[in-house]
Amino acid sequence: MRHGKTINHLGRTASHRNAMLSNMASSLILHKRITTTVAKAKALRKFVEPLLTKSKNDTTHSRRLVFSELGNKDVLKELFGTVSAKIAGRPGGYTRIIKLSQNRLGDNAELCIIELVDFNDTLLEAKNAGEAKATTTRRSRRGGSKKAAGDVTTEAGTSAEVVAEAKPAKKAKAATTEVSAPEDTATETLKDGETREEKAAE
C-alpha cells in the first residue's frame, strides 16, 4: 500500500527524476517560461518554489543550498540577481501553470506552460490597467463633495435622456380626479330601547 505517498514518480528512478527536475528548474529560471506536461509542471512547481524562496535571502548559505540542487553558476547568478529582485514582495506562489488546449501528439499527454508570475508582462499590464480603471471610476453612494454630487447628477440626467430617446413614449394614463371623503358627523349614543328616529325627533 502507498498510503500518504503523494510524490509523483513520473516513471523514473529517484536520480533520474532529480536530474530532470534540476534541469527543468534551470531552464525555467533562465527562460522564465517553459512548455511541458501537466504532471511534470506540478512536480517542478514543488521543486522550484522553495529554491525561489531561498533566493530572497542572499547569503552564502542560501546560495550553497540552491547550488547543491541546480549545479549551474549561470542559473545561480540569474536567480539571485534578476529573479530575486522581482519576486521580493511576493509571499509565495511564484509560478503559474497555464493548460494548453491541444494535447501532445503520440501519447496524448496534457500539455501546459509553466512560467514565473512576475515575468509575464502582458498579464501584469492588464492587471495594473484593471486596478487603475477600478480606482478612477469608483464612486461612493453617500454624500461626498459637491463636485462629485454634481457629476453624478449630470451623468444621471444624460442617462435619463438617452433612455427617453431610446424608448418610445407611452400613452399617458387617464387623469383621475381625487374625491375627498365627506367629513364625519358627530354621533350620539342611544339609550336602551331608543331608536334613531326617536332621537332625531327630539
UniProtKB/TrEMBL annotation:
Keywords: Ribonucleoprotein, Ribosomal protein
Gene that encodes it: rplQ
Gene Ontology terms, MF aspect: structural constituent of ribosome
Organism: Hymenobacter metallilatus
Gene Ontology CC entries for this record: cytosolic large ribosomal subunit
HAMAP family linked to this entry: Ribosomal_bL17 (MF_01368)
Protein name, as recorded: Large ribosomal subunit protein bL17
Superkingdom of the organism of origin: Bacteria
Region feature (Disordered): 130-202
Subunit structure: Part of the 50S ribosomal subunit. Contacts protein L32.
Pfam families: Ribosomal_L17
Biological process according to GO: translation
Biased composition, class Basic residues, residue ranges: 136-145
Biased composition (Basic and acidic residues): 189-202
Family assignment from sequence similarity: Belongs to the bacterial ribosomal protein bL17 family.
